[in-house]
Amino acid sequence: MNPLTRLARTAYYQFFSTISKIILPDTDRLSALGSLLGNIRYHVGYVGKMRSRRSYLQYLREALPHLSEIERRRILRQFWINHEHSFLELFLLPTLTKENIDDFVQFDGLEVLDECLALGKGVVLAVPHFGSPRFLHVALAIKGYPMNVISSRYEEASETVRRILLEPSLKWHNVGHPDMSP
Q1: Fewer C-beta neighbours within 10 Å, C or N terminus of the chain?
Q2: How large is the average pLDDT for residues 89-95?
């Protein structure tokens, strides 16, 4: 990551960390901010070569040729809205506790997890990267489920960004990295 991109990313995370502290615990306002940011990102995309809205729409044309241009634009807009909601959830994670977790998360199917754990062999939860990749394991850990998570070290990120990405997880459970040997 080049130094200018790293600096901009750090400023972006720090700015929204501060804004989130002002807005929380009003999750409706945080959600509205996520939708606003998503709509802005729909028009801007990521900054960088081949990361413009035009590039993303071209990828969608190639992957989904049967859809209309309007439908592809709707998909891209919703992607960015979901992306920004997930981003802002990073700043909600540090506020979660055993006392308030049920106000933010609805669990369905925990009895299946409990049955598997009762076998005494552990459980591997393969979590696809839909929504906030951290929210599920942090929420389960807060509910009392022992967790060990494999995560990137985010070595290319600044200390501020690494802290925002990893601290909520480290507060509640073990975090390992792919290069660690058991």
Answers
A1: C
A2: 92
